[in-house]
Design brief:
The complex is a heterodimer of chains A (476) and B (138).
Chain A: E1 7-10, E2 13-16, E3 26-29, H1 32-37, H2 40-49, E4 55-69, E5 71-79, E6 86-88, H3 89-92, E7 99-108, H4 109-112, H5 116-126, H6 141-150, H7 152-157, H8 163-167, H9 185-191, E8 204-213, H10 216-221, E9 228-235, H11 238-255, E10 270-272, H12 276-310, E11 318-323, E12 326-334, E13 337-346, E14 349-350, H13 361-364, E15 369-372, E16 380-385, H14 387-393, E17 396-397, H15 407-413, H16 416-425, E18 429-432, H17 435-440, H18 449-458, E19 462-475
Parallel strand pairs in A: 3-4, 18-19
Antiparallel strand pairs in A: 1-2, 2-3, 4-5, 5-13, 6-10, 7-9, 7-11, 8-9, 8-19, 12-13, 14-17, 15-16, 16-19
Helix pairs in contact in A: 5-12, 6-12, 9-11, 11-12
Chain B: E1 3-8, E2 13-19, H1 22-37, E3 47-54, H2 58-76, E4 78-88, E5 91-100, H3 103-106, E6 114-115, E7 121-124, E8 130-137
Antiparallel strand pairs in B: 1-2, 2-8, 3-5, 4-5, 6-8, 7-8
Helix pairs in contact in B: 1-2
The chains are: A alpha+beta (476), B alpha+beta (138).
């Protein structure tokens, strides 16, 4: 990206002043190298976001910002309903509440190494993954409605997990304001057989070792130490979320002119928060968030079943569960005033700082864990939210590495079977239904997650706590 | 005869069909969509599924057509390798021919989540050929 028009505020903060139709500036949190590596379209898309009605303070781009559709991925923006603010189906995206959760195991690398292969096989057999997979749980319409209203709380009430899990999930496991009646029959149909499935693409379930700890005090409070084994799950709201996104994006794109909104890009499809379609979308999107929370909760249960068979003494409490693609109503201090804003995070993680009332008692003093997914051969990270980040980015941070190579190129460059063999030599076991899928997800097709995490840390959005390396990876 | 290709998008993938008519270009875009998942040539035409849609413009009709296919693929757990499209004004009647997903044989790489309005275009190119394209979220 050409950065000549940007003003450097600090080593990791850059600003593009508001000009033309922009209502606010664009703020990039990244170092020079990351910024220069971003596509020109990231700036264009963040600039388009800055033109939307009711946007507050700035259109933010996280260090992993890359070219998305409508919003950039790694885009954060807050809107005020009192000032004609909008909700954007494009700003949330298709995979509503796609996210990551991390479970501790109470086991160390030496406990897991001897049974790693067995664990990988059993997880692969027990957790449905990949195109064409279906879950063991099939919901009728009444149960679907209950799930959409209750989220992970619904799953726990059905026996998939414990009440303690709920405290370690954003919104305490259940998104308020979900309105299942605004979720279409088509969306429900798409989800009927997909509860408890991982999906495909960059979604995964990984057994990981804590390779390095950067803040031992916070790590201790999160019950992790170097050499421990954790499990991370990355997936979202599956077909239901995709269908909600599809339907409302179209409706908002076609109706934008009716609401007097001049869309610089139709993919930014949005509607006033106080409009009929805006309210309907919020209700449906929140139901989509609950679907994702329930889905990750069920997969957690399936994972625990596998561990209890193979390593019976293992317990897998939830460290935390974060969502990436959401719009949430939150209170933030803007220029000294408390305001209720609708914060869109598109491929960005909520990262609330210490003392935030939304956090459970056990985490309130330290802040919210921020889970950053990497690729199957590299590393993932645990960070912690900061006070500073609350003011800098509405309490938001990056979400992952982002691709540096298209699927098409990756498929041409690597062979799935060879990658699996090479990773096995490095002690990483990969199980997948599709060799082509593995090739497209090759570690080399992704950017360096460490550079992204370092920039987030240095910009004060979230602080590094621990680095995780994969031991076994189940790919969709 | 329709043809297809993929075009670059940083995170996702662009699908493009070309043909002598909008309908032919839509058939090509559908093949490009399937090729995101697997090689279309490896799909047997065992079952036929009908899709109809209507839209306020030709480009939104393309989004609806591709999203209609995604819906049928996921809810039927099928892959489609052959398409026949008719467009009358802004109403589309399409047939998709395919078979149930065979994970061993098809090696499906990724499931498309939805067709987007990004890079969405249905228009004639300089040589008079119809081009139908958009980015698909995967």
């Amino acid at each position: 990206m050409d950065i000549t028009r940007l003003k450097q505020v600090s080593e990791n903060e850059w600003q593009l002043a508001a000009t033309g139709k922009m209502r606010v500036p664009v703020v990039f949190y990244a170092d020079r190298a990351l910024l220069e590596g971003m596509d020109e379209k990231v700036r264009d898309q963040a600039t388009n976001v800055a033109t939307l009605p009711g946007i507050v303070k700035a259109s933010y781009v996280m260090p992993d910002g890359h070219w998305g559709y409508g919003f950039p991925i790694g885009g954060v923006a807050g809107f005020d309903a009192d000032q004609g603010g909008v909700v954007s189906a494009g700003g949330v995206g298709f995979d509503i509440s796609c996210g990551v959760r991390c479970l501790t195991t109470g086991l160390t690398v030496s406990d897991v190494e001897p049974v790693k292969e067995k664990l990988a096989d059993a997880l692969f057999a027990n957790v449905p993954a990949g195109v064409g997979s279906t879950g063991r749980i099939h919901l009728d319409d009444a149960e679907m409605t209950a799930m959409l209203r209750g989220g992970a709380r619904w799953a726990v009430e059905r026996g998939w997990g414990s009440a303690e899990d709920l405290e370690r999930i954003e919104e305490h496991g259940s998104m308020e304001g979900a309105e299942p009646q605004h979720v279409s029959q088509k969306a429900r149909h798409r989800q009927r057989d997909e509860m408890g499935t991982l999906g495909s693409g960059n979604h995964y379930l990984e057994v990981q070792r804590v390779a390095e700890v950067f803040d031992s005090q916070i790590a201790y409070q999160l019950s992790i130490a170097e050499g421990d084994v954790v499990v991370s799950i990355h997936c979202g709201s599956r077909g239901l979320g995709h269908q909600i996104g599809t339907e409302y994006l179209r409706e908002m794109a076609v109706a934008a002119a009716k609401h007097g909104i001049d869309l610089p890009d139709r993919e930014l499809a949005c509607a006033p928060l106080r409009s009929e379609v805006g309210r309907r979308y919020l209700g449906a999107m929140r139901a989509g968030i609950n679907c994702a929370l329930a889905n990750r909760q069920i997969i957690t249960h399936l994972t625990r079943e596998v561990f209890s068979d193979i390593v019976p003494r293992a317990e897998l409490p939830l460290l935390y569960d974060v969502s990436h693609n959401t719009c949430k109503e939150e209170e933030h201090v803007v220029d000294g005033k408390r305001r209720r804003l609708f914060i869109h995070r598109k491929g960005a993680t909520r990262a609330f700082g210490p003392g935030h009332p939304e956090l459970p008692d056990q985490l309130r003093d330290i802040g919210q864990p921020v889970l950053i997914g990497g690729s199957m051969g590299t590393e993932s990270w645990i960070l912690i939210g900061t006070e500073e980040g609350m003011a800098r980015s509405f309490g938001s941070a990056c979400h992952g590495a982002g691709r540096r190579m298209s699927r098409h190129r990756a498929k041409k460059q690597w062979r799935g079977s060879k990658l699996i063999k090479n990773l096995a030599h490095r002690g990483i076991i990969v199980r997948s239904v599709s060799m082509r899928g593995v090739a497209e997800e090759a570690p080399g097709a992704y950017k360096d997650v460490r550079a992204v995490v370092d920039a987030a840390d240095r910009a004060g959005l979230a602080r590094r706590v621990a680095r995780l390396e994969p031991m076994a990876c189940i790919k969709g | 005869m329709a043809n297809w290709e993929h075009f670059h998008h940083e995170a996702d993938i662009g699908v493009r069909g070309r043909g002598s008519s909008p309908a032919a270009a839509f058939e090509g875009a559908a093949l490009a969509l399937t090729a995101v998942i697997t090689d279309p040539a490896g799909i047997r035409s065992e079952t036929e599924v009908e899709i109809t849609c209507e839209a306020p413009s030709l480009d939104v009709l393309l989004v609806d057509w591709l999203n209609g296919l995604i819906y049928e693929m996921t809810t039927r757990s099928m892959l489609f390798g052959g398409f026949a499209v008719q467009i009358d004004e802004l109403r589309l009647t399409g047939k998709a021919m395919g078979e149930p997903v065979d994970r061993e044989r098809h090696q499906p790489a990724v499931e498309p989540k939805g067709a987007t309005f990004t890079e969405l275009r249905v228009e004639r190119d300089t040589e008079g050929q119809w081009v139908a394209q958009c980015v698909v979220d995967v």
